[in-house]
Amino acid sequence: MTTQETEKQAKLGRPALPKSKKPKPLTTGVISKLLRVTPRTVGNWCDSGKLQHWRIPGGRDRRVEVHQLVEFLRHHNIPIPEEMQALIPASRLLLVAPTVPMLDAFEGALRISEDAFGGRPVDIAEDAFEAGLLLRGVHDLVIIDGNIGLGVSSQIAEEAMKAPGTRVVVVTPEDAGSPVLPGCVLIRHPVASSDLLGVISDE
User: Domain 90-201 maps to which CATH number in 3.40.50.2300, 3.40.50.720, 3.30.70.20, 3.40.190.10?
Assistant: First the structure.
């Protein structure tokens, strides 16, 4: 591992970036009680593909992630029960493949104005594979370091924007020319703390 890679790893572990906690998945029984419907109704939503879910390996029990249930309710204009509010994860910010300069700029923005972040937890994906695992419709802002490659950045951005309301910012390489990334906000390396603060505050 090079000195720069070691420095990057050290930065990724800094406590200044609050880590998010994933809420526990819900059983169909819990969902039926929250929504005051029968378990059969929840099962029908799952069977029809309306409510995304997964099954425990080797078993028949279904599990539904909180964000999947929230997306289902919003899509079908079903009011979110008051009892569910505490289960809904806070909006989160995702940094994808941040280089050391971008981490420095991000932490600088955090020091300048913590209010702009609204106490949101921050996820960090070190590469495209990890970004794919983390993109689950719970990030309202995704910032991609374009040094990962503009083609890869475009793919990640397209996946992120499938979730309604998600904004994507790509920090393009200094020598990237004028890339076309539909739907994305573009800023250029070398990125300053004020640049990142600006796109975060624009939400």
Answer: 3.40.50.2300
Task: Give, for all 203 residues of the chain, the pLDDT tens digit.
Answer: 455 544 554 444 443 444 455 678 899 999 999 999 999 999 999 999 999 998 888 778 899 988 788 888 878 888 888 887 776 666 678 999 999 999 999 888 888 876 666 667 788 899 999 998 888 667 888 999 999 999 999 999 999 888 777 899 999 998 888 888 889 999 999 999 998 888 877 65
DSSP E strands: which ranges in the chain?
A: 26-27, 54-55, 62-64, 92-96, 122-125, 139-145, 167-172, 185-188
26-87 under CATH 1.10.1660, yes or no = yes
Helix, strand, coil content of the chain in percent (nearest 5): 45, 15, 40
The ranges of the chain annotated as CATH 3.40.50.2300 are 90-201
